[in-house]
Amino acid sequence: MNSTNSIAESQFFAPRRLAHANMFVSDYVKAYDFYRHVLGFSEAYRQPDNLASFLSNGNTYHDLALTDIRSKYAREGQRPGLNHLAFEVKSEAALVGSYNKAVAAGFDFFWTANHDVAYSIYLRDPDGFEVEFYADVVEDWEEARRGIIIKKKPEWIPGVTNVPDQRELFQPKPQLKRLEDALVQSKRVTHVALATRDFEKMYDFYTTLAGLNLFAGSREAGCVLLAGSASTGDIALIEQTGSEPSLHHVGVEVWSESDLDAAISEADRLGAHVVKVVDHPARKAVSLADPDGIVMQLYVNRDWRPEVIATVRSADLPYLL
Fold this sequence. Notes:
Blueprint: H1 3-10, E1 17-25, H2 28-37, E2 43-47, E3 52-55, E4 64-68, E5 81-88, H3 92-104, E6 111-114, E7 118-124, E8 130-136, H4 141-144, E9 147-148, E10 186-196, H5 199-209, E11 213-218, E12 223-227, E13 235-239, E14 246-254, H6 257-266, E15 273-279, E16 283-289, E17 295-301, H7 306-309, H8 317-320
Parallel strand pairs: 1-4, 2-9, 5-8, 10-13, 14-17
Antiparallel strand pairs: 1-5, 2-3, 3-4, 6-7, 7-8, 10-14, 11-12, 12-13, 15-16, 16-17
């Protein structure tokens, strides 16, 4: 048996891609204003009872969730940062099958949820970050989930509440929109980068339980980019010895390099600041801290191949992946 087959057989989930990043912010209304007018994301729907705004440009039912630190979902003393990250699975049947396999192997899931347009399961990774796996369960999420939503979520128990749907209802080529009046024309959220406390355990978790595969970087160097079946990078893991685990950045693909230039020139005036610019043959990336200090990596790919990425300086790699 070759090593590739061995890795595949040890994987539990087989996600297509990262679907969204849910973040805690100090004020969800003010944060929405920033992400709308500066970074060019539309509000798909809002849940005022949960103090949360959900943003999407058509990529998925939300690319970003902005959850207020005063929300009932926030812990005592909550600060702005990552709430959870979510991966898209092909179908409900695939989601339930992977869930059952993981439970049988001893993994502990703390929540299952019916979100109307998707069914979701949640657990924590070795560094304590919340991780969601979900499957779309309606064909038109924009029609089913928009505007103001205030209601109790119905119960969903994997494989018990209903017979799992085998249909693959994700959009393979979503129709992306753009907000012409925003400073930056963002396409979609594509990945998150985590500064890890236990790099080895995190690598094993995301390549086995989560079922992602190495795309760029190396385990030995302590900086890797892992990808699902329909992407070229969903999560970057960055070894950060001696520090608490944290969100390093959220990756946002923009339409053109002129968007990056606009972010660089206008950031300070709009209450943000540029953390780092990496101008490399593989990708041009501008890491921009929002008013809460959450870093968004805005980027345009040039020649996004592992062999080209391998030529970047080690000091720049965490801000390129």
